[in-house]
Amino acid sequence: MLNRRILRIKAFKVLYSCAENRDLKLKEALAGLDTSCEATRDLYLYMLALIPALTAEAARRIEAARGKFNPTEEDLHPNTRFAANGISALLDGDPDFQKLLGKKKLSWSQNDVFLHNLYETLKNRPYYIAYMEDRESSLKKDAALWQRLFTEELEDDEALSAILEDLSIHWADDLPYVLGCCIRSLEEMGGSGRWNYPPLCQTDSHTFVRSLLTATYGRYKEYSDLIAQSVSKWEQDRLFITDIILIAMGLAEAETFPEIPIRVTINEYVEISKYYSTPKSRGFVNGLLDRLIKDRMEKGIISKTV
Questions:
Q1: Residue 91 Cα distances to 16, 88, 152, 179, 295, angstroms
Q2: Who contacts 116 (Cβ-Cβ below 8 Å, separation ≥6)?
Q3: CA–CA separation, 127 vs 140, rounded Å?
Q4: What is the C-alpha to C-alpha distance for residues 273 and 247, in angstroms, rounded to an integer?
Q5: What is the pLDDT of residues 198-214, one digit of tens each?
Q6: Average pLDDT over residues 266-284
Q7: d(Cα 223, Cα 228) in Å, to the nearest integer?
């Protein structure tokens, strides 16, 4: 589930915590990394749980309309396509999914206002109206509707961001990535009729990120001194801790993993700098990391198999 880009980001955040708290031991840092990784998969479960929760909101409204003192014909004979959608039924009936939600205490029951507002928004979307008017139904079409909702309605929702921030300190930046994971799962469910719990990450990727964190942690002082020596006095006074960590991680990766091409390593940390450092960091990280790696290759400190 977690690719190497997001694993690098998680290692970066843990190393930032280490830089802020020098008493943080490696064992604690590795434990924090594992917790952060598992939290992303918890968010994936929580966002998929939105599907039965929003479906239940629609079903409640249908029942409330039927129970009116003087119901209309539409109230008595409503379009139940969304309220009976197959993806919600699939997740509701999956014992593994429900067991995980219970074990991790993941529930939307306290967020009825958010569910109400999201359903109001959804009802007015052209893609929802077209879905409700379509006379042919299928699990694939149900999945496609949820894919549109996850693509278009959630990433920039401020109310959702506030909910996630209250629930977990690890979820703040993970939503865009997790929504992509949910969309892929929905596509699979629409085709296979089954939900599969994704592995946290590939075994080699788990080994990679723990080794990367360990290597950077162990040599951080050496790398930060090297970075300071490689820039002018004027630049030293303007070094940002985020840039130092990213360059240190790049050096550790280049030295520890001979099978990863240099350009891949540099590009990864330049990309991360766009989101977690200053506007000028992209060029600084790119230029200095490239120079330091080349210098250490010439000295035989870094060697590559590719």
A1: 38, 5, 21, 17, 54
A2: 57
A3: 15
A4: 10
A5: 999 988 999 999 999 99
A6: 93
A7: 9
Total residues belonging to the chain? 306
Q: Within a 10 A sphere around the Cβ of 264, how many other Cβ atoms?
A: 13
Residue type, 179: L
Helices (H), 93-194: 95-104, 112-123, 126-133, 139-152, 158-167, 175-192
CA distances to 167, 194, 216, 268 from 219, rounded to whole Å, are 34, 46, 5, 20
Question: pLDDT (tens digit, 9 = 90+) per residue, 141-173?
Answer: 999 999 999 999 999 999 999 999 999 999 989
Q: How far is CA 132 from the centre of its chain?
A: 31
Token couple for 155: 């990433």
Q: Is residue 260 exposed (0-12), middle (13-18) or buried (19+ Cβ within 10 Å)?
A: middle
* 246/240 Cα distance (integer angstroms): 10
> Taking the model in full, what pTM does it have?
0.93
CA angle 39-45-47, nearest 5°?
105
For residue 156, what are the contacts with CB-CB under 8 A and spacing of at least 6?
Answer: none
Query: In the structure encoding, which two tokens stand for residue 14, read together?
Result: 């843990």
Q: 3-class SS at 236?
A: helix
Q: Where are the beta strands (DSSP E) in the chain?
A: none
Cβ distance 32 to 18 under 8 Å? no
How far apart CA 245 and CA 221 sit, in angstroms, is 11
Q: Within its chain, how far is the Cα of 260 from the centroid?
A: 24
Q: What is the DSSP letter of 124?
A: T
CA angle at 37 for the pair 97 and 168, rounded to the nearest 5°: 75
Query: What distance in Å separates the CA atoms of residue 298 and residue 306, rounded to the nearest whole number?
Result: 16
Whether the predicted pLDDT of 234 surpasses 70: no
| HEC readout, 98-113 | HHHHHHHCCCCCCCHH
DSSP 64: H
Q: Determine the Cα–Cα distance for residues 286 and 267; give it in Å rounded to an integer.
A: 8
